[in-house]
Amino acid sequence: MPGKMVVTFGASNILWMVFAVSQAFKMEIFPEHRVVAQIGDVISLTCSTTGCESPSFSWRTQIDSPLNGKVRNEGTKSTLTMDPVSFNNEHAYVCTATCGSMKLEKGIQVEIYSFPKDPEMHLSGPLELKKPVTVTCLVPDVYPFDRLEINLLKGNDLLKSKEFLEPMDRKSLETKSLEATLIPDQEDIGKALVCRAKLNIEEIDFEPKERETTKKLQVYISPKNTVIFVNPYTRLQEGGSVTMTCSSEGLPAPQIFWSKKLDNGNLQLLSGNATLTLIAMRIEDSGIYVCEGVNQVGKNGTEVELIVEVAPRDTAILVSPSSILEEGSSVNMTCSSNGLPAPKILWSRQLNNGHLQPLSENSTLTLTSTKMEDSGIYVCEGINQAGISRKEVELIIQVAPKDIQLIAFPSESVKEGDTVIISCTCGNVPKTWIILKKKAETGDTVLKSRDGAYTIHKVQLEDAGVYECESKNEVGLQLRSLTLDVKGRENNKDYFSPELLVLYCASSLIIPAIGMIIYFARRANMKGSYSLVEAQKSKV
């Protein structure tokens, strides 16, 4: 009996303890039931317990997908953080808390959307009166786009509305847009253009559900009716002055720009003021002046021609390719002269008696296949009612060197110790440079010649070799060469004497000695002399 009583008491005590634990172990999750998050934001789900000192936690999705978040457990609290929120976080999440043998679970639904920015408004161009322009209202990165509505308003008037009800075949951020054509009129000036976007998801709570962008209409009128007033006249005397005033209509008021039209058609900017004044005018000031009224949507211009009447001046001649030519080539001589009215051009050639021989009335005088007789002075005259301006150029026709002659006197073959003169001549062409050289593998040596002649006194063996003459001027050159042969002095001994025969037979003994003698002899020749005594001293 006592033993039974103990067992009964122990069992009841255990049941009471389990009941007490089950009553004390509780769990809460925040936020409750559902949370709405924008894609790209950060959200945290927190699971906490009471009644247990060291609970354990786990998180999962109801469809066992990856959490796509980071879990952090701290004592009686566990937090699941999603940073950033993406499409992969659109699930029902379940938090499980365990305390010994007790387990509690609670779930929370994560719903996502994307509506991050105000609409963007783009115009295909500036708003010009009575000209159509395309207005684009663009809403970026929307999800779910099938709940999106875009409205475009001008003031209080609805221009266009669009809903995007097409089915979504996949989860993605979409950029949606609305386009409308606007033809501004005078009454639109100052009105507001509004692009309003709504994300109509009533079943979930988020802010803002409506975004808008406003642009104040600035209507432009392109410049027109541009006019110029000239004081005193458009025809002026050299040294005079003129004032020109320009005006132009438009909205906003056009800015005035003055330019001068160049010969190539380009405009040279002169001023940004309505009035342009020119003083002490010269011939360079003659020409066409352009006034333009310019604003944001266009420009409108008009022009006036100013004429400064002056005598011809600054007459110039351009020779191509050069005033010094090779015989047979062609040359173009172009003449220009400033003056008003534009001067007439007259080409002439100056004769030996000083008179002028008329050649052409074109601005360009062309000579083809030139000869030496075409050399001379050519004259260009610029002529108008106010006077004459004259410019001249000297044309020089050159002939390339030819008939060059290179000779060695008395002969190209001489004996050591003789005197020889190497002479180069080019008799038919003046102003010709003559250069004499001695060729060598180590480099050419330019000889100090006089009038194309180079004299060698007491010719040495090393003077033998190739000599070259180069005759040149501005238009060409010509080369000639000769080979100078220098023979050594011979003694009177018969090369076929018995002694020579004996020497030949004993060549195997004396060849080294002869080689040494030749070696030292050449060294002596390089110094300008040779001495057997010195050679022997060197050998010793």
UniProtKB/TrEMBL annotation:
Q: What is its main location?
A: membrane
The biological process GO terms on file are: cell-cell adhesion
Q: Which CDD domains does this chain map to?
A: Ig (cd00096)
InterPro entries per the UniProt record, alphabetical: ICAM_VCAM, ICAM_VCAM_N, Ig-like_dom, Ig-like_dom_sf, Ig-like_fold, Ig_C2-set, Ig_I-set, Ig_sub
Provide the alphabetized UniProt keywords.
Answer: Cell adhesion, Cell membrane, Disulfide bond, Glycoprotein, Immunoglobulin domain, Membrane, Repeat, Secreted, Signal, Transmembrane, Transmembrane helix, Ubl conjugation
Can the keyword Ubl conjugation be found in this entry's annotation? yes
- Ig-like domain residues are 40-109, 223-309, 312-396, 401-485
Mind telling me which residue stretches traverse the membrane in this protein? 501-521
> Does Ubl conjugation show up as a keyword for this record?
yes
- Its signal peptide is 1-24
Tell me the GO molecular function terms.
integrin binding
How does the UniProt record describe the way this protein sits in the membrane? Single-pass type I membrane protein
Mention any one GO cellular component term assigned to this protein in its UniProt record: extracellular region
One family name in Pfam for this protein: C2-set
Its subcellular locations are: Cell membrane; Secreted
Q: Which SUPFAM superfamilies would you find in this protein's record?
A: Immunoglobulin
Output this protein's name: Vascular cell adhesion protein 1
The UniProt function text for this chain reads: Cell adhesion glycoprotein predominantly expressed on the surface of endothelial cells that plays an important role in immune surveillance and inflammation. Acts as a major regulator of leukocyte adhesion to the endothelium through interaction with different types of integrins. During inflammatory responses, binds ligands on the surface of activated endothelial cells to initiate the activation of calcium channels and the plasma membrane-associated small GTPase RAC1 leading to leukocyte transendothelial migration.
